[in-house]
Structure formats: C-alpha cells, structure tokens
Specification:
Elements (H helix, E strand, L loop, with lengths): L3 E7 L7 H6 L2 E8 L2 E9 H11 L5 E5 L3 E12 L6 E8 L6 E10 L3 H4 L4 E4 L3 E6 L7 E5 L9 E3 L10 E2 L6 E6 L4 H15 L12 H5 L1
Parallel strand pairs: 1-4, 2-6, 7-10
Antiparallel strand pairs: 1-3, 2-3, 4-5, 5-6, 7-9, 8-13, 9-12, 11-13
Length: about 220
C-alpha cells in the first residue's frame, strides 16, 4: 500500500481563537489513539482537499507533524460547515500497522443495469458505505458494486454478492441488501399521489384551500 503523506503542525489555539487560522486557510484538527497522547494540530486546507479528491476518506495517511514526527492515521471524523461546505475540523485516529482496524469504506456503484436502462426502473441504494475489518496496509480506498447484475425487478445485490479485496472482512450480515431496482410508477399511481398531496395540504394547520370566486360559484 502506498502511503498518502500529509503535513501538519502543532496547534495551541482553542475555541474562537481558531477562527484566525481558518481565515488563513488552515483546518483545526486533533490526533489521538490507543497509545497516542491527544494533540491539537493545524492542517493546510488546500493540501487536505487535494488528498480527499485523490484518495478519499478511507485511506491510511502518513501524518508528518512539525516536520519530524510521523503518524499512521485514519480520518475518524470530518466536520464541514453546513452552509459553505468547507472543512472546519478533523479527527485523526492513529493506528498500529500490525493490528486490525474496523472502519467504514465507501461503496462505488459501477456498470449499467438493464432493469434501469431498458425497463425504466429506479435504482435504489440501501447503503453508500460498508463497515469492514482488516490490517491498515490492506485497507481499500473504496469497494465496487457492479449493478449490471440487476437485469430484472426481482433481483437484488446483497453483501454476499460483492467482490471484496483480499484480506478484507465485512462486518455486516451477508444477506443485507445493498441495491435493487424498483419498477417505474404507473400513470394511475402518479395521479393518486398528486391527489393525496393536494388533500393533505388542506389539513395542515394554517393552510386554507382557496374557494372559487363568487362569480364562478354562481355559474
């Protein structure tokens, strides 16, 4: 496994004092682990964004702190601003390369489903991440799910149907459904939904269905 490198520096600022660093393009972060003394860090936001774009969140990072101390870490939690979408805080968890870890890995849906393309069905994804266990060196950046297996509305893809990388163990029940295709709605069903929505709106407190103008009512 090729390690992904990222530089960081020790942070002394806390609370609102971190706002200045954020404005200068830095992200406050913390690092901790089983035998790791918790520490506060700064990470360059541009470098971190490039790392995520290239490798994703599920990757072992070689974190270099103050140019001298190296740590093998995972991104344990990543917080973003709900308005701007910018990263505002990172939790790094230090791992031991000879001990198994449990983490979530992103599912990437590939291929083309005949039930969707030819029959107008709707692809339903029941999960976008999956919990796995493996040694840090065997951690995949993602796991592919081939939806070309979904040729009819009766078929589905379960955990047991996914091709897993070597030395990776899934921590989810093998029968758990990952994806399926539902039939398109009929015109009758769509019409029924429209009528139901109109009826329900009039029942909401404060909502009054407008009455026909007096002139129209007399007609």
């Amino acid at each position: 496994m090729d390690k992904i490198k990222l530089a960081a520096k020790t942070r002394t600022e806390r609370g609102r004092k971190t706002n200045k660093g954020r404005k200068e393009g830095m992200i406050p972060a913390v690092i901790y682990g089983k035998e790791e003394k918790p520490g506060s860090l700064w990470v360059d936001s541009l470098d971190f964004s490039r790392l995520l774009k290239k490798s994703g969140e599920s990757v072992i990072i070689d974190l270099n702190v103050d140019g001298k101390s190296d740590h093998n870490v995972l991104i344990h939690e990543l917080q973003t601003d709900p308005v701007s979408g910018k990263y505002v805080h990172i939790d790094f968890f230090q791992v031991k390369m000879n001990e198994k870890i449990e983490t979530e890995v992103e599912l990437i849906f590939i291929g083309e489903s005949a039930a969707v393309k030819e029959q107008g069905g709707v692809l339903v994804k029941n999960m976008d991440k999956i919990e796995i266990s493996c040694l840090p060196a065997d951690l995949p950046s993602h796991i592919d799910v081939d939806i070309s297996k979904l040729k009819t509305f009766e078929e589905h893809i379960a955990i047991k149907d996914i091709k897993l990388p070597a030395k990776v163990e899934v921590k989810v029940d093998a029968e758990t459904v990952v994806a399926l295709v539902t039939p398109p709605r009929t015109e009758e069903e769509l019409s029924g939904l429209s009528e139901k929505v109109e009826e329900d709106v009039t029942k909401v407190e404060g909502v009054v269905k407008p009455e026909a103008p007096a002139e129209e009512a007399k007609k």
